[in-house]
Amino acid sequence: MRKEQEPDMELPKEEYITDIEKSSQKLLEASEQMKKEAEAFYPKMLEEGGLKEAEKKSESLKRAIGNISRALAHTYTVSDELSARSKDLHTQQKKYKIIAPPPANAFVDAEEHSSRHFSEGLSIYKLLLVCFIGSFLGVVVELLWCLFTHGYLESRSGVVYGPFNPLYGAGAVVLTLCLYDLRNRSSWLSFLNGMVVGSVVEYACSWAQETAFGSRSWDYSHMPFNLNGRICLLYSIFWGILGVLWIKKVYPRMAELILKIPNHSGKILTWALTLFFVFNCVMSLAAVFRWSERASNLEPSNSFEVFLDERFPDERLEKIYANMEFMPK
User: Fold this and answer.
1) Within 13 Å, how many C-alpha atoms sit on residue 113's CB side?
2) Ramachandran angles phi, psi of 216, nearest 5°
3) Which residues contact 293 (CB under 8 A, 6 or more apart)?
4) Above 90 in pLDDT, residue 276?
5) Is residue 3 predicted with pLDDT exceeding 60?
6) Are the C-beta atoms of 239 and 92 separated by less than 8 Å?
7) What is the rounded CA–CA span in Å between residue 173 and residue 110?
8) Residues 152, 146: contact at Cβ < 8 Å?
9) CA-to-CA distance for 156 and 162, rounded, in angstroms?
């Protein structure tokens, strides 16, 4: 006689066991019992009425599979978040490091909520500050990368006033919006989402620049696995890594810094910086558009274009936008 299989899972002999773990053990036992009942039922399917009963049993099992799948997804989500929160809090408590570890996102969330801070959650104030700070940090990182890889400093700014690049600001906001719900989850989820989100933003920005100005600031046509030269696999992987670094390392530090800004003055400061940033972007768009007209030998048609020619000649814009190339028409 064949020895009956015992359930594979046994409850651990530990002090704390969740109710759902106890229920899962009962579910496993029920599934083993169901398997035995099914094997006993198969011969009865050949009898009168057996086929109809089999169909009903099958429909019931399909509904059970749906319920179990949803329960599995919920349980995995909670388990993953508990594990990630514990890991982040443990990292935050580590000492004796040259650079202090970032605060855990769970800690930042609690501080924002308890202080009723103006930047709590994904408020418009936080997103505006993230855009401004991200546009600055992106330029700094790329300047250092250029110095490290090529041995010289070269402008990576995207606007005519100051070391800011709206592309990085937009990327920071999009990454924050898309990864915020994953801030207390495992890093691999942030990697995959960052990879997709960053690639979409990069492709969209490249397409918009070429459509509006007939120019490109980067071209990956020489890279393997590229898509129209706008994105490529290597930089998509970089976006994934950036996604993890952003939501686990950079964002919590940034949010902790924003927490130090008083509520009343913080709102005023945010709107002031936003107005400056919008003005900066508008002037930059106008300057670059006029630059593209000069490249086509078009004379200024009004006093504002004359002002742009005087204030932002080709020599100045070539230094600011060192990698910009106009596409042949």
Assistant:
1) 6
2) -135, 140
3) 305
4) yes
5) no
6) no
7) 21
8) yes
9) 11
Beta bridge partners of 326: 215
Q: What is d(CA 246, CA 187) in angstroms, rounded to the nearest whole number?
A: 11
| pLDDT, position 110 | 94
7, 29 Cβ separation under 8 angstroms? yes
Classify residue 300 as exposed, middle or buried by CB count within 10 Å of its CB (0-12, 13-18, 19+): middle
DSSP secondary structure, 109-178, as one string: HHHHHHHT-TT-TT-HHHHHHHHHHHHHHHHHHHHHHHHHHHSS-----SSSSSS--HHHHHHHHHHHHH
Cβ-proximal residues to 256 (8 Å cutoff; 6+ apart), any chain: 102, 103, 108, 111
Report whether pLDDT(138) > 80.
Answer: yes
Which tens digits make up the pLDDT trace of 260-271?
999 989 999 999
Rounded CA separation 325/318 (Å): 10
DSSP 280-319: HHHHHHHHHHHHHHHHTTPPP-SHHHHHHHHHS-HHHHHH
Greatest C-alpha distance within the chain: 99
Q: Which residue has the tokens 């008083």?
A: 262
What tokens appear for 199 in the block?
A: 């690639």
CB within 8 Å of 244: residues ≥ 6 apart:
187, 190, 191, 194
Residue 216 to residues 93, 203, 208, 316, 324, Cα–Cα distance (Å): 45, 11, 10, 18, 6
Average pLDDT over residues 47-60: 90
Q: In the predicted model, what is the mean pLDDT of residues 87-112?
A: 86
Q: Which residue, among 128, 178, 133, 137, has the nearest Cα to 278 in the 3D structure?
A: 128
Which residue type, as a one-letter code, is found at position 243?
G
Single-letter amino acid, residue 103? P
Cα 325 to Cα 292: distance, rounded to the nearest angstrom: 10
